[in-house]
Amino acid sequence: MTKNNKIKVLFRHRSMEMGGVEKVVLSMLNHLNKDKFDMTICLNMNQGELRNEIPAHVRKVHLTEGREDLSKNPLIQKLQLAKRKLRLQNALRNPSIAQKTLNDKYDVEIAPTYAAFSAVLNSVNKKSKKIGWFHSDITLPKLQPLVPEILKQIPQFDYFIFGSQQTKDILIQTYPDLKIPENQVILNAIPIDELKQKALAFKPELPDKPVFVSVARLHSRKGFHKLMEAHARLLKDGFDHHIIVIGDGEEMNNLKKQTEDLGVTESFK
User: Fold this and answer.
1) How far apart are CA 88 and CA 2, in angstroms?
2) Are 72 and 88 in contact (CB under 8 A)?
3) Which of 50, 189, 194, 207 has the largest count of CB atoms under 10 Å?
4) pLDDT at 259
5) What backbone phi and psi angles, to 5 degrees, belong to 155?
C-alpha cells in the first residue's frame, strides 16, 4: 500500500478500441472508490476510440504508441508498425520492460480479459494479488488455439471473476477437473443514467413491423453473419421483420457485402 494507505491496483490491457471489455474497464475505473484505491492502467498500445476516456484520477501508461499517433506516410508507418510489433514481442518475453515503464509496485494486478493473463501472471511483482477476468465461452471455435494456455493460466490466479454465470457453467461443464481459484460471477455494470441521456439524442425511425436491435462490436465471434443467414431464411419463409445492428468493428465491410449477397440490404441495417 501507499503511504496514504490506498490499495494500489494495476489493470493490464491491450488497447482501448470500442468494445464490451473496454466499457467494463472504464466502468470500474470510474466507480471504484478513488479514496480507497490508487489505480493505474497499462495499455500495450495507446490506441482506440476510448483511449482518452480514462478518468483523470487514474494513472495511464502505455508500452507503445497507437495507430492514431503513427505517421500518415505509408512507408514510415510500416516501419513504425514493425518496430512496435518487435517491442510488444520483447515486452511479452521480458516483463521487466513493462516494469521499467510503470516504475511502481502494486498490491493487486488485474487482467480484464484472457489476452492480458500472461502480462499479469508474469509480472515481476511476485507479491501482488493476481486477478483474472473471463468473459468468453470456452467452446468458441476461434478460441480453441488459445484454450490450452488459458486452462494452464486460470489456476495460477489468486482470484477469478466470470462475466456471466453461463461463462462459468460452460467452463466447468467442459473441463470439470480444472482447478479454478476462489471466484465469483460479476455481471457487467449498466450505466442507466448515461443510457437514458443518450436515448434523448435522436428519435429513430423504425418500420411498422417487428424490429430486432442488437448493440455490439462487429466481431466475427458475435455471430452477426449467422444472424443474417437466419434473417434471410425467415424472410424467405414469409416472416417479415427488420434487424438493426448498432456498432462498428473489423467485420463491418464483410457484413455489408453479405447483405448484398443475400439480398437483405433493406431489411438488415
Assistant:
1) 29
2) no
3) 50
4) 97
5) -65, -15
Average pLDDT along the chain = 93
- pLDDT number for residue 2: 58
Non-local (6+) Cβ contacts of 15 within 8 A are: 43, 44, 45, 46, 47, 48, 51, 66
pLDDT score of 99: 94
Q: Where are the domains of the chain?
A: 7-185, 204-262
pTM: 0.82
Q: What is the DSSP letter of 250?
A: T
Question: By the 8 A CB rule, do 32 and 42 touch?
Answer: no
**C-alpha to C-alpha distance for 234 and 73, rounded to whole angstroms:** 47
Neighbours of 252 (CB within 10 A): 12
Band the pLDDT of 199: cuts 50, 70, 90: confident
Residue type, 197: Q
Residue 3 has pLDDT above 70, yes or no: no
Q: Look up the CATH superfamily of 7-185.
A: Glycogen Phosphorylase B; (3.40.50.2000)
Tell the residue number behind the cell numbers 516501419, with chain if given: 79
